[in-house]
TrEMBL record:
Protein name, entry field: Uncharacterized protein
GO molecular function: ATP binding; protein serine/threonine kinase activity
Gene Ontology, cellular component aspect: nucleus
Keyword Transferase: yes
Record Gene3D superfamilies: Phosphorylase Kinase, domain 1 (3.30.200.20), Transferase(Phosphotransferase) domain 1 (1.10.510.10)
Length: 321
């Protein structure tokens, strides 16, 4: 579930030397699969298997003393099928199309400056709409370790996208991030895997908007954060009731709107009440505002939803059922 470096080489070009790592190709990121779909949903068995693998991968990283630091759907890739490695370049071109060269030109007709390539190559699409992904195809790679770090580095700045960034990165900016910061982002990613939309939504959102989303969904912030949040009076009363300018959407509302209703509309199976409750029981401790109160990956793997629903679906893939 983690990419292996198969080879390395150095490119000597007009802009200097660049060391390149060769890894196995992947089909697409999970976010790309959703972007390629009108439905933006995975089949329930596929969603379970994807979530299980992601937790296993993060558990592996944490067990070796590292924090990923940038967990989101764009950094979880769908593996290429084993048959892909057997294709010759000609067969790849026949199946997916030959490379398309797009010329790079100056809009004013001037010559290109040194170091600028004469053309670019559009990437081929190896993915499929999210709802078309089958269980045997649902194997993942957790990638992009550019933000990974060891707790010994005492890193306190998070570059995770705002919609999945843990709140302590804002309210305790001088406190070193820990494994628990990954747990918050992991919970956001699991939600997006099983849902049509993200739990905390906001296009070009600000920090204040995201904090409002957190409080809407999870309740009042820890007292010292609540007092320091300057925009709180514009959004909530002192006791946490939303103002008229802030329509309230609870955890239950979001599950119905983003998980159940979209599945009902396209005629796919829904999560039954027992499984829904197990999902809630697993995710809520992962979304504890205080980092020290969040679940560990070991505890997540021992949760009812993982044991009863998610891990068994991954086991079917592993055994080739």
């Amino acid at each position: 579930m983690l990419p292996s470096i198969l080879n390395t080489f150095t490119i000597h070009g007009p802009n200097g030397e660049h060391t390149c790592n060769v890894t196995s190709p992947a089909r697409a990121s999970l976010s790309d699969l959703k972007d390629g779909s009108w439905v933006r949903l995975f089949q329930i068995n596929v969603a379970r298997a994807l979530a299980a693998q992601l937790v296993l991968a993060v558990d592996y990283v944490h067990a070796r003393g590292f924090i990923h630091g940038d967990l989101h759907m764009g950094n979880v890739l769908l593996k290429s099928p084993p048959s892909f490695d057997q294709l010759s370049p000609e067969e790849i071109y026949e199946k997916y199309g030959a490379p398309e060269l797009d010329p790079v030109v100056h809009l004013d007709g001037k010559l290109l400056p040194p170091g600028v390539p004469s053309h670019g190559i559009a990437p081929i699409w190896l993915g499929a709409p999210s709802e078309k992904i089958t269980l045997p195809e649902a194997r993942i790679l957790l990638t992009d370790f550019g933000e990974a770090f060891s707790p010994k580095e005492a890193k306190s700045e998070s570059h995770t996208p705002l919609v999945s960034r843990p709140p302590e990165a804002r309210f305790e900016p001088n406190r070193p991030l820990s494994f628990s910061s990954d747990i918050w982002s992991l919970a956001c990613t699991i939600w997006t895997i099983i849902a049509q939309r993200q739990l905390f939504e906001g296009f070009l959102a600000t920090e204040d908007y995201m904090t409002r989303e957190h409080v809407d969904t999870l309740g009042i912030l820890p007292p010292e954060w609540w007092k320091r949040w300057d925009a709180r009076p514009d959004n909530f009363t002192e006791d946490g009731k939303p103002t008229k300018r802030n329509p309230y959407r609870s955890w239950d509302d979001r599950f119905e709107d983003s998980v159940q209703l979209p599945r009902q509309e396209v005629g796919t199976p829904l999560f039954d009440a027992e499984e829904r409750d197990a999902i809630f029981a697993m995710l809520r401790p992962m979304f504890a505002f205080r980092p020290e109160h969040r679940s560990t990956t070991k505890q997540i793997l021992e949760s009812e939803w993982m044991v009863k629903w998610a891990l068994p679906e991954y086991e079917k893939i592993r055994k080739g059922d």
